[in-house]
Amino acid sequence: MDHLELAKALSDTYHVICPDSIGCGLSSWVQDKTNDTGLQFYAEMAKSLLSQLSVSSCHWIGVSKGGGLGMMLADHRSGLNVRKLILNDVGPTLDDWVQGAVAKGVAKTPRFESYLAFEDRLRGSLQKRGLNLSDAKWRQLAQAWARRTDDGGVTFHHDPALAEQFSHHKQDFDLWDHFENIQIPTLLIKGQPSIVSDEDTARMQSSGPKCTVHDRTGGHISFMDSPEEHAIIKNFLGA
């Protein structure tokens, strides 16, 4: 649901694949907390999925963990034929304080008495980070991100075990070796403010694929649902 508008905008030209990753959406939860939470495991699953779908090449649009995964798979040594890479406010590194904050947020699944209470907390939290949506979209987002607890309450619809990535797979947050072995056109859509530092941005522009950078309004969290972002992405993929 998060990127439904973008998927619709691209589907008139491309075969769009939007799988729920492990521990999210309709996918199964983590079975092996040590192995199943790392990018290497996700990479093998992505390769298997594309093979099963007989996809010989693809463009990759990566958000958050999907951005790190995209950098691994776009590395020319990966064995996967990625033709173009788009990163939505994701760089090869993630500051320790950001890692800590995300890990803490993922590990916690607070309980709410109702969907409305859940929506109020979600809206308040994400608005502080620069996300502005209509009332209808806030309601849709809350419904997509919520699940019922066994006792009838409401909590976040993800597996808290995903936080194990931050303790078992520290290498996932230093991907320069992969990035600097990317040889395809790469676009960084950078939020304002961004979690990608200016230093990392400059290095991304001067090494590896020497990526193009486009600044967008809003912070790190974006569902890429604006006409402006759709135009940027379509123009980059079609060039």
Total number of beta strands: 6
Number of domains: 2
Oligomer: single chain
> Widest sheet: strand order?
1-2-5-6
Characterize the biggest β-sheet. Answer: 4 strands, parallel
Strand percent estimate: 5-15%
Query: What is the CATH first-level class name of the largest domain?
Result: Alpha Beta
Architecture (CATH level 2) name of the largest domain = 3-Layer(aba) Sandwich
CATH topology of the largest domain: Rossmann fold
| Helix count from the secondary structure assignment | 10
Mean pLDDT equals 95
Distance between the termini: 27 Å
Contiguous runs where pLDDT drops below 50 for at least 5 residues: none
- Write the element-wise H/E pattern from the N-terminal end onward: HHEHEHHHEEHHEHEH
In angstroms, what is the radius of gyration?
18 Å
State the shape. Answer: globular
- Please estimate the helix content: 40-55%
CATH superfamily of the largest domain: Alpha/Beta hydrolase fold, catalytic domain
Structural class assignment:
alpha/beta
Report on this model:
The chain has 239 residues and is α/β, with parallel strands linked by helices. The protein has 2 domains: 4-109 and 171-238, Rossmann fold (3-Layer(aba) Sandwich); 110-157. Helices cover 41% and strands 12% of the residues. The chain has helices spanning 4-10, 39-52, 65-74, 96-107, 115-128, 135-145, 165-168, 176-179, 198-206, 227-238, and strands at residues 58-63, 82-88, 146-148, 154-156, 186-190, 212-215. A 4-stranded parallel sheet has the order 1-2-5-6, sandwiched between helices. Strands 3-4 form a two-stranded antiparallel sheet. Strand 5 (186-190), helix 9 and strand 6 form a beta-alpha-beta unit. Helix 2 packs across helix 3 (65-74) and helix 5 (115-128) crosses helix 6 (135-145). It is globular, with a radius of gyration of 18 Å. Pfam families: Abhydrolase_1 (PF00561). One of its GO terms (molecular function) is hydrolase activity. This is Hydrolase. Residues 5-227 form the AB hydrolase-1 domain.
